[in-house]
Amino acid sequence: MALDKEIFKEELKQRLRENYAMELEDASEQEIFYTLGALVKARYSDAWRDTWKYYVDKNKKQVYYFSIEFLPGRMLKSNLLNLGILDTAREALTDLGIHLDDLAEVEKDMALGNGGLGRLASCFMDSIASGGFPGNGNGIRYDYGLFKQRFVDGYQVELPDEWLQSGNIWEVRRESKAVDVRVGGHVYLAETNDGKLKPVYENERVLRAVPYDTGMVGYENNVVNTLRLWAVEIPDSEEDKYQSIQGRRELEDLTAVLYPDDSNEQGRLIRLTQEYFFVSAGIQSIIRHYKKWFQKPISKLSEYVSIHINDTHPALCVPEMMRILIDEEELSWEQAWDITVKVMSYTNHTIMAEALEKWSIDLMQRTLPRMYQIMEEIDARYVQTMQELHPHDLVERTRIIRNGQVHMAHLSIIGSHSTNGVAKLHSDLLKSVVLHDFYIIYPDRFNNKTNGIAQRRWSQIVNEPMSNVLDETIGKTWRQDSGDLKLLRNYQSDQAVLEKLAEAKKINKQKLADYILGTTDIEVSADAIFDVQIKRLHAYKRQLLNLLHIIKLYQDLKENPSLEMQKRVFIFGAKAAPSYHYAKVIIKCINETANLINNDPDIKDRIKIVFLPNYNVSLAEKIIPAADVSEQISLASKEASGTSNMKLMLNGAITLATLDGANVEIRDAVGDDNIYIFGLTEKEVYEYYENQEYSAQRLYDENAVIRRVLNAFIDGTIPNIVYEGREIFDSLIKYNDEYFLLRDFDSYVEAQEEIDKAYGDQTFWQKMSLINIANAGRFSSDETVSRYAEDIWKIESKDSFVTEKG
Ligand code: Z2T
């Protein structure tokens, strides 16, 4: 379906006239953006409908990806690319005197997620559609996405993210598909006339769930799947119950905001209600759709439906499916359970204990009484079955309800046929440590699915200069199949190619330098090493280790101004959960250190620190193409996978990493010579936990460099951090450095020194960079999704079918 440039221009003008009664010359960027959005949406509406119809007509098994977070970012360019009209649109707009890139900036990020988990869900949506797989997303349409971050006096300040303020061009409200969700009150079982036990609800509240659908456009294959997000409303029937403004507010607040905690569950009532709300609405709509269009008996559900539980937030899928099959479809418990387990699958995203979701029995019972009854029954039957096969204490440790709490990970594993981790190391740790008890009980349920990224977005869309060099060097097939990036390996000693890649990098760095100047007033040189750490602020990710190294460099330079060293720009992007005090203290310390160093006339441009505020998908798109060094320095065993590591690698940054998460697989892909590995291994970390021999105090006493760096936090070297500096110091010394920063410090410094040396030899550096790009293909979410489809969901790809239209 090629689109002619001239037709495109005419259509754009025509739509402007129709919708805004305006000529192009008089329209604002906003108005043009909305018009272009509508045009794009019209381009895929037939394919959207045809895709849906095809799945129904062919009775295709579909996967529903349930996630409490989706983080697509901006969709304009990605939709244009996938529709095959990005270049046409760009050229047409240029003719009209408009820059597509400027127009794209008008779109607000859709930021309904915290970080990796939500972004992964969106990468999967792209790859599921692009692979021609029948699959849909199911989540929550938050009125406010992840908070907007500002810095005031170096402190993080959170502002609401009003992403819907000027409307959302991509979504379609589908009122006719609304469903009711019941929460609260009491439920008891009563005998019906035919002797069956049926639940009777009392004093429950009914919520209306209204779906908003967004087309998920596949890459040049005429497939458009659906991301369905639910918003709460007050049903007409309940109007009289909500007389008070306060009562209304409470209810309308349910889908108002995304909880801003990435790896920390807080056990709040509203959060639990959010979880049930989108789970119940989603499953009801799946069953309704199945019964209406597939016309198969409910007993065959697992042959046509697969439901994925993205971390434990949608774990109530298990009891909710049971409720519908038993209470509404009147299946026996055994039959319902058999179907449920076959339908469900679950991904674990973390081993951090504080992120493992648990709810008090009391809260669960009060909020979701029917869910609780069903979970009690699942739990009782689990114990009954397993106690004949396994030791008592093993069964006790793994049951769903214990010590007054409901364990959502246990529910997810017991109620599904597949549990996977998100990188090899992580999946191994699940089996050997974190979920070892379950591995004994269900060895066949465990598997690995290493994360991947939407490679087309993270190369073609964000990095045009590099993409052009790739086209000239290896042809264009990599744009479709990122596996073909490996063709680049043949050019690792080709000086001309290396130089062209370096030029592309330089263009990106200059562009970022301009952006940095514009937003922070800090002047950075594009000749410096751009050393990047972008991810949520968390103690285990060790942004503080990065800072300790920067302070060391600063002290070295102050002491010895003639020290030879490459210029460096340390770039940070990170949001801290608003309630995460320690993470906010680290932000303050980085900002104050930045102030000190950036303004020290002795340092000039030898070191710069730039903490860019409000890190999100669209900021990542600006930073990543310009990165030279990718900091992946979490304490080994703590980062489940990481995905920014993959994006940075794809853009030719050299990874500086611990052997954690997917870093291990990146090392395997590029070889030891093209990555900088440092620090404790996961085994050594566990050894420390066992022998309890770690002493941060001793490292402080015995290591003069460490001592000098840490003292900077409490002796006034870094200004304006009297309290914060003390807190950092105490966390490391008094509280014995939970994440072994001091243990890894020397080894980190050494790796940084090697990087400094390597960058001095540009040919050597560029070759490493090329090898990283060439081997990034395997981290495509296209690949990851294919593995899920084959091993877990059992769904088939539809070979591109074409809708011929005029
Ligand atoms: C999250 O982004 C991740 C894990 C979570 O555990 C929660 C959130 Cl919001 C409950 C991240 C992991 O930290 C990261 O290592 C991984 O790459 C990402 O999920 C996607 O799997």
UniProtKB/TrEMBL annotation:
- Write out the entry's keywords from A to Z: Allosteric enzyme, Carbohydrate metabolism, Glycosyltransferase, Pyridoxal phosphate, Transferase
Which organism was this protein described from?
Oceanobacillus oncorhynchi
Q: What does this protein do?
A: Allosteric enzyme that catalyzes the rate-limiting step in glycogen catabolism, the phosphorolytic cleavage of glycogen to produce glucose-1-phosphate, and plays a central role in maintaining cellular and organismal glucose homeostasis. Phosphorylase is an important allosteric enzyme in carbohydrate metabolism. Enzymes from different sources differ in their regulatory mechanisms and in their natural substrates. However, all known phosphorylases share catalytic and structural properties.
* Requisite cofactors: pyridoxal 5'-phosphate
Locate the transmembrane regions by residue number. none
Offer one example of a GO biological process linked to this entry.
glycogen catabolic process
Name the UniProt record assigns to this protein: Alpha-1,4 glucan phosphorylase
Q: Which reaction does it catalyse?
A: [(1->4)-alpha-D-glucosyl](n) + phosphate = [(1->4)-alpha-D-glucosyl](n-1) + alpha-D-glucose 1-phosphate
What PROSITE patterns does its record include?
PHOSPHORYLASE (PS00102)
MF-aspect GO terms: glycogen phosphorylase activity; pyridoxal phosphate binding
Positions where N6-(pyridoxal phosphate)lysine occurs in the chain: 647
Protein family (similarity comment): Belongs to the glycogen phosphorylase family.
A GO cellular-component term linked to this record = cytoplasm
Instruction: Give the matching Gene3D superfamilies.
Output: Glycogen Phosphorylase B
Q: What class of enzyme is it?
A: transferase
E.C. designation(s): 2.4.1.1
Q: Which gene encodes it?
A: glgP
